[in-house]
Amino acid sequence: MKQLPAEWKSERIIISDVEEYEIPEIQSICNTSRYLQQWDGREHDPDYVKKCVEEGNLPPGGKLQNYRIQSIRTTEENRIMGLLSMYHGYPSEDSVYLEFLYIQSDIQKQGYGQEMIQALSFHLSSLGYREIRINVALKNWPALRFWIKSGFNQISGIYGDSEHSDTTFANTELIKTL
């Protein structure tokens, strides 16, 4: 199975495999996403990045070699500004599942996310993948707007609690055809 290279670029960003020495800084960036808990109900994991590097965050029956966690940096300052994790070949061989994408809040709304998704789509398409999937919390309206604007315009399902309340949560799986 073909996978994204260990490092790839777009005009303003560099995306590369997370190195062990980067884990504390990337975890610190990841910690700034804790506000997402109010929308998805997941507990914060202070060792999320380390676990992803060592074990991956795999789908049922998944293999570590198909998983990738990468840092997102600015080309201009080489500053780490986010992270991307994905699984190649789930739920089908020609699919890539985005497990997590986060760009620091102070850098959001500057077009980096859209640029990253455009570059990612181009690279994955050139490798023969036909779709990208992502799971988004229904309460996360900013993310839903971002993903729909990025071309994730198919819904494959809604999962989670059937009733809406402050303590219930549901997600939708969005698909972008390449």
UniProtKB/TrEMBL annotation:
<keyword id="KW-0808">Transferase</keyword>
<feature type="domain" description="N-acetyltransferase">
    <location>
        <begin position="13"/>
        <end position="178"/>
    </location>
</feature>
<dbReference type="Pfam" id="PF00583">
    <property type="entry name" value="Acetyltransf_1"/>
</dbReference>
<dbReference type="InterPro" id="IPR000182">
    <property type="entry name" value="GNAT_dom"/>
</dbReference>
<dbReference type="InterPro" id="IPR016181">
    <property type="entry name" value="Acyl_CoA_acyltransferase"/>
</dbReference>
<keyword id="KW-0012">Acyltransferase</keyword>
<dbReference type="GO" id="GO:0016746">
    <property type="term" value="F:acyltransferase activity"/>
</dbReference>
<protein>
    <submittedName>
        <fullName>GNAT family N-acetyltransferase</fullName>
        <ecNumber>2.3.-.-</ecNumber>
    </submittedName>
</protein>
